[in-house]
Amino acid sequence: MNSRLWLAAFFVPLGLIIAAVPQNTTHPFKLTAAEMLGEVSTRTQFITPETVADMIVKNDPSLQLIDVRSQDEFEKFSLPGAINIPVSELLSDQYAEFLDQEVKMNVFYANSTVAANEAWMITRQLGYTNNYVLEGGLNYWFEAILNPKEPSAASSDEEFARYDFRRSAGQALGTGVTAVQPAEGSKMSSKPPIQAKPKKKKAAGGC
Amino acid sequence: MQESINKDRKTKYLNPYLGGVLLGLVLLAANFVSGRGLGASGAIKSGVVSIVTAVNPEAVEKSGFIREYQGAHAGSPMKSWLVFEMLGVLVGGFLSGALAGRLKFKVEHSPKITSKKRLMLALLGGILFGFGSQLGRGCTSGSALSGMAVLSLGGFVTMMAIFGTAFALAYFFRKNWI
Amino acid sequence: MGPLAVNEIISENTNLLLAFIIGIGFGFVLESSGFSSSRKLAGVFYGYDTVVLKVFFTGAITAMLGLLFFSLFGWVDLNLVYVNPTYLTSAITGGIIMGAGFIIGGYCPGTSFCGASIGKIDALVFIVGLFIGVAIFGAGFTLWDNHYLADFLGSPKVSESLGLTDGVFALILIVVALGMFWAAEWAEKKFAREEY
After folding, report:
1. pLDDT in tens, chain B (178 residues)
2. Which helix (H) or strand (E) holds A131?
3. Contact residues for B158 (Cβ-Cβ < 8 A; gap 6+)
4. For residues C151 and C11, is the Cβ–Cβ distance under 8 A?
5. Which residue(s) pair with A84 in the sheet?
6. Are the C-beta atoms of residues A204 and B137 closer than 8 Å to each other?
7. Does the CB of C177 have a partner CB in chain B at under 8 Å?
8. CA atoms B138, B144, B146, B149: torsion sign
9. Chain B CB contacts of A4 below 8 Å
10. Given an 8 Å threshold on Cβ–Cβ distance, is B1 in contact with A205?
11. Could you report the per-residue pLDDT of C45-66, keeping only the tens digit for each?
12. Cis peptide before B16 (omega within 30 of 0)
């Protein structure tokens, strides 16, 4: 009789506590605020327009452009191959498989970097990798790729190379895909590698 | 304080509630360390698969059962969590029995039946249980106990089926026990 | 953060070693509680010895509460813990056959190993029977594989199916278990038998 009373005295209160407390649904792969701050400071989420242009022109299948502006703006102008996920709809189920994956490199873009960065922060907070932000947004894209400024005679070789690349890319993108020769000695910023999501396989159990 | 007449005078066992708490802690440890509960019948399955693949390799291709097993368990069938666990059970049981002075070769049976009958019943019971554990994807340890701890619906259903059936059939087999 | 093996905090080999050690704990506790005796195990069905009920349910609620509290403290990720899948038809039929095996043989696989470890020959014979039973299942697999795979419901939790949270269900189970323990003590006094 004694044992049962002890048992009851121990288990019932614990049971009441666990019944009352809301269920804990933290996932270990979500980022903490400190981790976010660290990533934001290093600005690794940015991708230059040159890199993106290069990938578009070469028809790189691992690129997925995501336009985070409203549907109207998307329909007026969008980059080749882009899909439209407005920031307000970023968390809806239908887009989850685009955002949380390890096959393609998603590049968020908007008119400037503000909205795209918002999208990146939200998805990064959920622990998703392989999402990036187009540096400078469409505003810079137009300026850099479609209307590149000719460097002055005193500029470095690298600047000339970049200008040549941008011009050919702009032509290719504007008038259809033609072969773009990367200028000799040009160093395109290398594509960031697509990160595989660490796979957590559940243990097999039973029997 | 009331004492039940059936208090074990000869053999000292742990207070069952204490035993239960300890069992729960072992189960908790298993889940925390390995992400799975305890089990037993799966080790038998590993044993059967090993024996069959050793003795009759051609049977392996024809057997859907073995292929299903190999699909879920890469590598040697004996190198499985359950096999190691059951080896531990043997050691643990032995240690406990040794400490309590319960080590003895004997056939445990009711005075109303013979040893031989008990052994035949044990064999029959084992065959039924072995078969049933495959259908039920687990036995009382793996499906019922561990399943309940993680709130699995299948675990509860199997548990109720096992105990329900045993209770229902108890009357017909009472002569073997009491 | 647990489970350790799934989060790769420990290696696969360490996992197997720990399985062995956990098994030692399992076997020790079972044998100490009397699960090495087929007579004690069968006792719950006749009322004279309800050790199975007490140990089983106390173990289940301890582990259940333990997991829920661990999850609350962030020590284990319950999404990574194995939840037994539910194949409704075979769960029931398998359980029925096992129930018959239990009342006839007086053991279940885990306890039979316990019994065998202290020298019980009937436990040993039971284990031989287990091998035969599994082999029969495997040999005739094509005869019942449809039955075996029928009614797959995924891995639902009981709490989900009843529309309760895990915590509320745990509380209910604790209360039910305690009720059963009181009934068990009553039964033992009423149906007592001599030990042999």
Report:
1. 444 444 444 568 899 999 999 999 999 999 999 888 898 988 999 999 888 888 887 777 777 888 778 777 777 778 889 999 999 999 999 999 999 888 888 888 888 888 899 999 999 999 999 999 999 989 998 889 999 999 999 999 999 999 999 999 999 988 888 7
2. strand A131-134
3. B136, B137, B138, B143, B144, B147, C91, C92, C94, C95, C98
4. no
5. A67
6. no
7. no
8. positive
9. 17
10. no
11. 988 889 999 999 999 999 999 9
12. no
Mean pLDDT, residues C63-84? 89
Residues C55-67, buried b or exposed e (16+ Cβ, 10 A)? bbbbbbbbbbbbb
CA distance B18 to chain A (A): 8
Candidates C4, C24, C121, C169; CA nearest to C70 is C4
Q: CB–CB of A16 and C171 under 8 A? A: yes
Predicted complex ipTM: 0.92
B148 touches chain A (CB under 8 A): no
In the sheet with A131-134, reading across from the earlier edge strand, the strands are A46-47, A131-134, A105-109, A63-67, A83-84
Nearest Cα to Cα of residue C113 among B50, B25, B84, B11: B84
Buried b vs exposed e over A136-172: b needs ≥16 C-beta within 10 Å?
A: bbbebbeebbbebeebeeeeeeeebbbbbbbbbbbeb
Whether B135 contacts B147, CB under 8 Å: no
Is A7–B39 a contact, with Cβ atoms under 8 angstroms apart?
no
CA distances from C144 to A39, A135, B34, C132 (A): 55, 61, 32, 17
The amino acid present at B73, given as its one-letter code, is: H
Which chains sit next to B, with 3 or more Cβ pairs under 8 A? A, C
Pick the residue of B17, B69, B86, B159 with the most A CBs within 10 A to test the interface with A by mutation. Answer: B17
Distance from the Cα of residue C64 to its chain's centroid: 13
Over residues A133-153, mean pLDDT: 82
Summarize pLDDT for B94-140 with one digit per residue, the tens.
999 999 888 888 888 888 888 899 999 999 999 999 999 999 989 99
Cβ neighbour number for residue A56 with a 10 Å cutoff: 20
Structure-token match 């797959």, residue found: C152
Nearest CA in chain A to C173: A15
- pTM here? 0.73
How far is A142 from chain C, CA to nearest CA, in Å? 46
